[in-house]
Amino acid sequence: MPDGMKEFELPDGPSIAVLPFVNMSGDPEQEYFSDGLTDTIIAGLSVHRSLFVIARNSTFTYKGKSVKVQEVARELGAQYVVEGSVQKTEDRVRITVQLIDANTGHHVWADRYDRELKDIFALQDEITMKIMVAVGMKLVTGKQYAEKFIPPSGSLEAYEKFLKAYEYFSRMNKEDNIHARQELEEAIALDPEYPVLYSTLAYTHLMDLFFQSSNSPELSFVEATKNVKKALALDDEDYVANLTLAQLYVLRKERDKAIDALERTIALYPNGSEAYAHLCFVLTGAGKAEEAVKLIEKAMRLNPIPPVRYHQYLADAYASLGQYEDAIEVHREILKRSPNYLFSHIGLTGLYMGLGREEEARYQAQELLRLDPAFSIDKHAEMLSLVIDDKAIVERIISNLRKAGLK
Prior knowledge:
The chain is of the alpha/beta class. It contains 19 helices and 6 strands. Helix 7 runs antiparallel to helix 8.
């Protein structure tokens, strides 16, 4: 089992992990298609409250690896595992899929499909419904599974551009964020009524702010807002749009609206780990850290191999509760995994100084400056004031950072 992971108790109801479908086309450029099929099935299953679905971020850590299903199920805390393969040609698609009960190691259901490519939307829905039947779930209308990913025009070209854009976007770096936006804009030109294009486009503009890669942060904010509004006008239940909207509210210091948006998102998508994580982040800043800890624990259960920032949110919540040693331990674990994670060096600098551990604080401050020589106390204070309501907490953090020698 990977370092830092623990075994989980299975939830009361059915729990499932969908492993990345294997691209059998022989063309690495077709990875976006097999990944897109996986994402669509995960999304289709995730809308059901009585089904516990492991997040994409965790299952995709096994991509390209030879795995034993029962080990994967134990590591992720799921009873059922789905695995399959995809072979896409110019006008046909061949898919194999199997559902395995990890408790017994037996196949619960398996099937093989050979269809025309134009049938891919109905086929994704059919696979999702058959998985649900196999794990004993009651069916709802198939439209609920696939509609958010189907272009209203039925354009396969627009759909494939969305899948390519999502592949780029998922890499979470400045360059691929730009490539994602280009694909999305081209897809919108093909199908201007396709909601998920606008919500994902809005998120690329928001990420420009986080990457600090925008030539005009004001314009990026305007573009993110415009595209979120368009996405919600077309589909007010769009998951990414609601997440992005909440983050825009945070940046506008409209915390209550952000909380409402995230609570609504969780109600719509009870298996969406990102909504729980974002709500943890917002509630910690609002002084509700006890509730925040429970939310991030839920997010990490849904996403057992989470992004590093989930652990950061947990550390921040512990610090807000005055559980400084717990916060330090989480930051130290983060740095074992990601030694250059800037926010943990910042967090440890302040925490150590607050506890009077000056030597350790100054060491962390030097590590911080090694990684970011241009670090600015004033800019960090501006960022903290956006996400933390209590000015006294912000002042205490900044004071500790100054005492450690940061400017």
